[in-house]
Amino acid sequence: MARKKILMVCLGNICRSPLAEGIVRQIAADHQLDWEIASAGTGDWHVGQPADRRSIAVAKSYGYDISRQRARHFDSSMLDEYDQILVMDKNNLRDVLTLAKNDEQRRKVSLFLTENMDVTDPYYDDQLFDPVFLTIEERAKNLVKELMAKFS
Q1: Which of 8, 96, 101, 140 has its CA 20 to 30 Å from the CA of residue 79?
Q2: 106 flagged as catalytic
Q3: Are 50 and 69 in contact (CB under 8 A)?
Q4: How far apart are CA 91 and CA 108, in angstroms?
C-alpha cells in the first residue's frame, strides 16, 4: 500500500495547522504508521517562516516539537498530492474547495473538527493557544483512528 499523505490547512500556516501537523504526526508515529503529515496555509504571508512562537511554546509544554516546521502556501497541486486534506475552518474550507477541479479532489477535503465546527484562530489572543491546542489534540487522537480505518 502506498504511503498515505495527510495535509492540515489553516490561514497562515503558523498557528493551528502546524499544531495539527505536529500532533497528528506524533500520534501516527506512536501507532507505527508510515504516514506523511504536512501543513499549509491558504494565505502566503508567512511562507518559509517557523510556526508562531506561541504555537511552538504550547506544543512544547505538552511534549510536541513543531519548531522545525516552516510555513507553506496551499496550491491546487496539493489536491492531487495528498490523500486527505483537513482544514481548520469554514473559510479555509471554501478557499480550498474553490481550487478543486473535480469530485475526487473535493472528496479529499473536510473540516478538521467534526459537526461542522471551526478550530478557533488564536492569533490575536494569547489566552486561546492552550484551549486551541487541547481541542486539536483531542480531535487528532480520534482522527488517527478514523484514518487508520479509512486507509486499511
Answers
A1: 140
A2: no
A3: yes
A4: 17
- Selecting among 10, 25, 89, 139, the annotated active-site residue is 10
d(CA 48, CA 29): 25
pLDDT score of 2: 76
57-103 per-position pLDDT tens digit:
999 999 999 999 999 999 999 999 999 999 999 999 999 999 999 99
For residues 81-92, b (16+ Cβ closer than 10 Å) or e, as one string?
ebbbbbbbbeeb
Dist CA 92 CA 96 (whole Å): 6
pLDDT, position 131: 98
User: In the annotation, is 121 catalytic?
Assistant: yes
Active site residue 15: no
